[in-house]
Known about the structure:
Chain A is an alpha+beta fold. Chain A is 37% helix and 15% strand. Chain A starts with a strand and ends with a helix. Chain C is an alpha+beta fold. Chain C is built from 21 helices and 30 strands. In chain C, β26 (640-651) and β27 form a beta hairpin. At the A-C interface, α2, α3, α4 and α5 of A face α1 and α19 of C.
Amino acid sequence: MKKRIELTINGEHYEFNVEPWRTLVEVIREEAGLTGAKESCGTGECGNCLVILDGKPVNSCLVLAVDANGKDILTIEGVAEGEKLHPLQKAFVDHGAIQCGFCTPGMILAAKSFLEKNPKPTRMETKEAMEGVLCRCTGYVRILDAVLAASQEMMQENKTATKGGK
Amino acid sequence: MNSSDLRYLMNLPKFEYFEPKTIEEACSLLHKYKGDAMVLAGGTDLLVSMKKREISPKYLVNIKTIPDLNYIRYNGEGLLQIGALATLNEIKDAKIVKEKFPLVAEAAEKSGLPTTRNVATMAGNLCNALPAADSAPLLICLGAKVKIQGVEGSRTMLVEDFFVDSKVNALQNGEMVTEIQVPVLPDNSAGVYLKNPERSVTDVAVVSVGTVITMDAKRAKVVDAKIVLGATAPTPMRAHKAENTIKGKTLDQELIEKAALAASKEAKPRTRPDYKRELVRVLTIRAIKQATI
Amino acid sequence: MKKHSVVGKSLTRVDGIAKATGRAKFTYDMELPNMLWGRILRSPYPHAKIINIDTSEAKKLPGVKAVITAKDIGPVRYGFVDTPRYPADQLVLATDKVRYIGEEVAAVAATSKDIADEALSLIKVEYEELPAVFDPEEAMQDGAPEIHDEIVPDRPCAWEDWGVARKARSYKAENNICAISQQGHGDIEKGFKESEYIREDKFYIPSTSHMAMEPHVALANWDPSFQKFDVWLTHMGYEVKRYWLARALDVPISRVRVRKAYVGGAFGGKIDPFSYEFLAAFLSRMTLRPVKISLTREEVFIACRLSHRFIINVKTGVKKDGTIMAQEIKAIDDPGAYRGSSPVVLFLTHGFRRPIYNIPNAKHEGIGVYTNKSICMPRRGHGSPQMSFSVESQLDQIAEDLGLDPAELRLKNFRKKGDVLPNGDTLHSCGLAEGIQKAMEVSGWKEKRGKGRDKNRGIGIGVAAMFNGAQYYPFGAAATMKLNPDGTFTLFCGAIEFGQGSDTAMSQIAAEELGVGLDDIILVSADSELCPIDHGNWLSGGIFVTGEAVRKAAVNVREQILDFASGWLEVKEDDLVLKDRKVYAKSDPEKAMTFAELMINSIQARNGDPILGKGFCKPVPEVEFYPSLSKGTGRWTNAYTFSIIIAEVEVDKETGKVKVLKLTSAEDCGYPINPLAVEGQVESQAVQGLGDALFEQIIIENGRIVNPTLTDYKIPGTLDIPEEINVNHIITNDPKGPFGAKEVGESSRSAAIAAIANAVYDATGLRIKELPLTPERVLQAFMDKKE
C-alpha cells in the first residue's frame, strides 16, 4: 500500500515510502525529523503546521504526503542561512513576538511568504494575511510589529544589495 | 454510537489511493467504486471530514494528477472558464478575473482562510454542497454553471440546481465537476457578498447574502435582481419574492426594507430561526444598497 | 533608588533564537529510540456502569505491546485537591463506572499510532447506562442521580505527605455537593440596613478552553536498571507532577525525573495531574520501552480540563454617594464529574476580590456541585474572571443607577497601601488609585463615557487583583548557583518556561545581583533532578517566590565572592564592586580580580571551594501550611497585584457584533523585571479576555461537548484584536518582591472581560449578564428591549 515519494525539503532531496493516508506534517516531522512544524488542531484552523509548498503557504496537516510528491517544501529549519537569522526571525526575537514559541514557525513562514508578495504592507494588510495562524500567548500585537519591522529591514537590505550589485 | 465517539481520532482513516491521468480514468474509478470513492482536489474540507470520521471513503481519487484541469481563462465570448483544480487564491489573483469578473474574485476571497485558499478549489467548495458554501451565493446570482463529466459523457448545469440538499450535490455515480463557467456581468450591474459575522478567524458564516442587481441605462429602475441566501436552508437559496419585490421598480428605503423582509420570511433556517431571519433582513438591506450605490 | 543595569530592561528573551529557528524542543517533539505510541479509550457515555471490558482481541493484534485497564492497576486515585476534608476523587482509569464523556477507560501501547488506534477499536466495553445530570441546580436536588459513592481514602492525603499533621477523612457527596465555602467578615445584615441602595443580579459564566497551542502530551521511560522514570511533560511545575506520578506508580519520589522541555503555552490548563501522564508511565513500566501519549485537540477539549462554569448571584448595598456597605455573593460552581479545583476556586472567587474594594461587611457562600460533564480547573485567574465579570458589571450598573461615574465609584472604594485584609494579608504596595487615574487619563475616559451611544460606541472599565504565590506544597522554591571557570555563572532553578519569559526573568535577576550581563548566566531550569525544590509557575508565584529564591542565591554567591576577594585583595568588602565578571576596589581599581581568577584562587586557597550559592523563599514565611479554603481565614499571600483595563467598543446594533477598538491597561506589577515581557503578558491577557467576553464558550449538550475543535471553538485571531492595546506600568516597588517586582500573568484577563462588558453597556444601554456577548445575544437583547 505504501507509495514512494520524493520531496525537496529546505533544498535537500528526500525519498520516503509512505502510506497514502499520511499527512505532509506527519512525514516532515516523523520521517524527515524536522519538528519545527507543529500540529495543534489538525483541522486547518491554527496554521501552526504551516509550511511553504511550491512557494505557497499551506497547512501541512491538510495535505496528503503523496499529494506533495515531487514538490519543493520550505520549513522553519530552512529559513535562516546557517547561523545567520532571517530578518523576520531577528525581528520576532527583538520585538517580543515570541512567547511559548509553538506557533512561531508557522507565523514566521506565513509572514515570509506574505512579505515576498507584498514587501511594504500596511498593518491591516498584515493582519489579513496572518489571519490563518493562531497564537494564544502574545495577543498578536508584537507579532504584527515584528512583521512590519522586518519588512522595513528587508527593503533596506534589498536596496543595499542592489547598490552593491552595481 | 459511531467509532469517532469512542476514539477521538484526528489522524486520517485508511483508504486506497489513485492517481488517474485522464478525466475518463477518474470517472471510471468513481463509477467502479460507486459511493465508496471520493474525489480529492484541494482536500481541505474532505480531509477534515475524514479526520472527524464524518465520512470514511474507501478510495480517494486524486484528480490533481490529471493534466489541464488547472486553468482560468476567458473564452472571448462572454464566458469565464475555471478548471476544477484552480485554487481560490489563483482565481482571486487572476488578472482576467480581477478585471472582468470582480464578483468571482470576491466570492473566492471570502471563502476560507488565506492559507486554505492556496489549496482549496472553487469546484471543491461547490461539490461539498455545504449550506454555507461561500462561493455559491454570488455564483448563483451570476448564473454560473458547472460542467460535469461522467462515464457517459458531459453535461452542464446551473450552480443553483447543483445544490440538492445539505452536503448533497447533483452528481451521479461516476461523475465529476471539471469546470465552472461564469457568464459576464450585464452592463449596469453590480453585486456584493455579505456574511455575518464578517470575515475573521472567530467567525462562522451564520448567515450570508449574495446579491447582483442590474439597473437600466439611466440607473433609475431595477431591471434584474438576484438575491441568494447562504446558510439559512439546506442549500443556498434564491429569495425569489425579495427579487420580485424590487424588479422593475425604483429603489427607495421602503422598498428595500420590504424586499429584505420578504427575504427573511423566505429563509428556512433550521436552527436559531429568529436570529437568522433578522440577520437575513439586515444583510439583505445592506447588500441591495451596496449593489446599487 | 538604586539604578539597575539588567533588571528593568526590555532585554530579548534567552530562548528567542531557539524558538525562532524551530530548534526549541517541546515535549510534543520528543521521541526516544524504540518508543511506543500510547492511545486512550474513552467513555462515550456521560454516566454508565462498566459491566465488562474485553481486551483479548486488542492484545492479539501484531504490534500491540500492552493493553491496560483498571484491572491491571486497581483504583488509583489522584486529584488536584487532596486534603483531609476533600480526598482525591479522580481515577487513572475508570473502575466500576464512568462519569463523563471522555473519561479514561483503557489504554494501549503499540509500535505505531495506526496500530494503537486499531487496537482501541478492538477493545470491547460493555456499559449499562445510568441516568445522568448536567445542570448543577438540578444535581443539588433530592433524588438527582448520585454521581459518586463515598470516597474512603486508603492512604495519607497529599497534605500529610507534605507535613500537615491532619488525617484524611472519607467523603460522601450529599446532593452531589463536592465543595462548600463560607467566607465573610463584618455584619452583613447591618451592612444592608445601613445601605441606601441595594441591587441584586444573577450572572452566568460558561466553561472555556485554555487552548494552549501545544496539545497535552507525555513521554515516559522506565529504566529498570535504575528503577527510575524519566518523563517529559507539558506542564507548569515538576514537583506536583512527580509527587503524583510517584504516588500513583508507587515508587519513591526521587525515582521520577521530570526533564526540561519547552512548554507550548499553559494558562493553568497544564497544572493538574492527568491520566495520560500516569498511563504513559504505567505502559512504559509494563513494556520496558519508552511510551509517548500525544493527545488530539479534541481530547484536550474533552479530557484536559476547562475553566469553571459558574452561576453567581451578587447583592450589593451602597450609600447614595457610592460607598459600598455590604456585599453578599452566592456562587454555584459546576466543576463536572470530579471535584477538579472546586474548593480552591470557591475560595479564590472571594480571595481575589478581597484586596480590591474596602467592603466593611461581606458574605460569600460558594457551593461546588458534581455533574456528568468534563472537569474544570484553573484558567488564568482561576475564578477571578468569573467573579470580576459579575461584580464589576454590577458595580457599573449601580453607578449608572445612582448617576455616578463608574470609575469614581471604584476610586472611592479602593483599598490602599498599608491596608490589612480581613484574613491578615497586608497590602505592602497597591497601585489601584494611581492606576485608575492613569487609565482614565490615557483613555480619555471623562470625554468619552456616556457620549458615544448615538455613534454605537462605548467605553467601560474593569478591575482585578491577583495573588503573588500562595501556600501550596511544596510550600516554597529554591535556587542554586555555581561560579564557572570562565567567570560565568550557572543558575539552577525549577521555574518552567511556558512562554511567560521565566527563563529570561530568572537570568536577569541573577545577573543583576552579580553585576554581569544576561549572557553570563547559564540557566538550567525545570529539570527536577538538577534543580532544587520548586512550587511551580502557578498561583502567580514565579517571580515573587522563585525569583526571590534566585535573587537570594545570587546574593549568597556575591557574598562569597566579596568575602574571598576582600581577603585576597586586602580591600574592605564595602569598597568592592562586582562588574563585568570582575571584582575590584572602588578606591583603587587596580586592585582587581576576574571571576575566573577568583574561582581558581578560591579552590587553591580554600580547600577546593569553587563558590556555590543557594537561596530559597516561601510565599508567606510567617505562617505554616494552608489557611482555610472553606472559611477563607488565615494568611494567603504576601503581595497582590492589580490590573485596571478600560475598553472601547463599537457595536453593530443591527447584527449584534461587538468590535473592540482599544484597550488601555494600568498594571501594578510592582516593578517590571522585563518591561517588554510584562507588556506581552498584558496584551496576551487582554486578547484572551476579548475572546472570553465576546465569543469563547464550551457548548455542552447532554454531557457532550459539541464544539471540541478549533473549527467550532474560536479563539481570537489577528483580525479580532483592537487597533491599540496601551499598557501603562504603575510602579509600586513592593518591599517583599525581588527588586520590588510582583506578578503580571493573571489579573488583566479578568479586568478585560469586565471592561468590555461594561463598554458594551455604555454603547448600547444593554446589561447582558451571561458570557459571552455573542452577536446573537446582543441582538436578542436589542430585540427584547424594543419589545
